[in-house]
Amino acid sequence: MPPGYWETCFSGDLAQLIRQGVLVVYPVSQLFPVARVNLRLRALAETLTVSPLPVDLFVPSLVKACRLAAEAVARLREEAASLSGASGQHPGHLVVTELAPLLAGVLKVSRAKRKACRDALEAAIQEALKDRPPTQLILSVDAGLSKV
Fold first, then answer.
1. Which of 16, 75, 73, 12 is nearest to 44 (CA)?
2. What pTM value is reported for the model?
């Protein structure tokens, strides 16, 4: 599927996150129909109007964006399976990026507290995805890979 094809499949908050560049939907190859969505954390934080942005105000937006991203991956998998005739055998991939720039720049977390804050944000991401649609989802947070 070419870039831009998927945007017509989404509406509401999900479409808005795509338009804002918070969620990036990657083209799906017919050879390897893997649904892949990138959640850009710094871009998400920049949609919020509070500056500086406290972590506790960011987390609810993060949780909502993660759930919407997982919904996007599930829809992409369904659509790719129907177009290719495959049965959704490939897992979806949610890539969460910009965590380090978020911590240092937008959230302005001190160097001493970054690891604890990073761990808390990663836990919030995992928690948000525990009730995801019943599809296999590979989660990558920055460079780490884990099955959710």
1. 16
2. 0.85
